[in-house]
């Protein structure tokens, strides 16, 4: 201070001609700037702190702390601690993947404790890519994430693969038939190989799982589809045709125990079924084709085509309106000719005889989830039952699913995750003397679907009526730590 005042008086003696007010203004301005400089330098000091998560109060590592308006920044260590030089009144900008950004204005205190809050909006932009997660915008490969709630919540299906049909662009899922145990063909971006399989690699909780029917759709938390060959850099040659990554639900710490039950009952019917042709023009076409090929007396199963056609025309004219039962009448619905041949004249509706109008399905799910300070748990039980479409000796599938998950933090440096999966598959179906579905559609509507004296003729209904019930039971279980 004395140096500044002495300097001021020396300047006053040398510049006597200047206005006194002007001199005083310059002196006070210089004095103020000097004090401000010393004051600003004195306020910058070391600031230390700890950053934890809002759930479980777990220290967060890798959190970025930046002083707004400057290029000064740091990150937290494994224990969530950080240190940085800052001044009172400056603002700390704190960011971390999966958490909402925060701004903290510094006071005179030298230590701070900050709690981060998870952000669902930010989490929606995170994609599982193998060894960790990345922001979707930073990925160079083609990745699609599935809205699990929308995809599975609105579809009464117990097979995750069927629920994914038409959901992911470029993911093609087709079934060769509508059987209860029919397996899907899965391709990403079309056929990948003309020689081998072009099936993508399917991982459930990082374990290869080719058959997704072992998973209860109610247990799925997230699905990511990696579509291009860049996936081979992480998963190797098995991922050349893409990767489907599925993560199941797990327990969450510091959450109240909740018990959830849901169910659905569904009735399904075929969208389109072909109709059987009228036997009269059908048999006439067969007869004409046989004549052109040189067969003078064409027949089918010993029945002469012309006589068979005439008998069916007579039945349609005289008995169609009265003979509507399943017991067949000799001389009207069929005829035993003197030469030992049997002619069947009654025209049936095979679809009505063989198929149900609707098939029934049901599914029940019970879920228990919760957690304390150091432990989170999840347990679910699922049951489903699907019936086949055939009326006689129908097939039936029952599935029982049990899924369990525990994640615990016994110490600050140790986290343990345990997942258990169990599936019981119980399938009942008639013994296959023949391919019932194939022969049902193969023969004409005049083949006998009824009985005579309580017994079936040798045709598909007879085989199905006599078929024993076969049973297949399969158990799938695994434990991941």
| Spatial ordering of strands, largest sheet | 17-22-23-24-25-28
Report the span from N to C terminus. Answer: 71 Å
Percent strand: 35-45%
Low-pLDDT regions: 1-19, 30-42, 135-140
- Number-wise, the strands total 28
What number is the mean pLDDT? 83
Identify the overall geometry.
elongated
Helical percentage: 10-25%
Written description of the protein model:
This protein is α+β, with helices and mostly antiparallel strands. The protein folds into 5 domains: 2-43; 49-121, Carboxypeptidase-like, regulatory domain (Immunoglobulin-like); 124-248, Ferric Hydroxamate Uptake Protein, Chain A, domain 1 (Beta Complex); 255-269 and 356-480; 279-348, no CATH class. The chain has 11 helices and 28 strands. The strands form 9 sheets. The chain has a 6-stranded antiparallel beta sheet, with no helix packed on it. β22 (359-371) and β23 form a beta hairpin. α7 packs antiparallel against α8. It is elongated, with a radius of gyration of 40 Å.
Descriptive terms for the model:
about 475 residues; alpha+beta; Immunoglobulin-like; Ferric Hydroxamate Uptake Protein, Chain A, domain 1; 5 domains; six-stranded antiparallel sheet; five-stranded mixed sheet
Question: What's a quick, concise take on this entry?
Answer:
The protein has helices at 2-14, 20-43, 120-123, 148-153, 160-163, 232-235, 279-292, 305-318, 350-354, 436-442, 460-466, and strands at residues 45-53, 64-67, 73-75, 81-86, 91-96, 99-105, 111-116, 126-128, 133-135, 143-146, 171-175, 184-188, 201-204, 207-208, 220-226, 243-248, 255-268, 299-300, 303-304, 334-336, 342-344, 359-371, 375-387, 396-411, 414-430, 451-452, 455-456, 469-480.
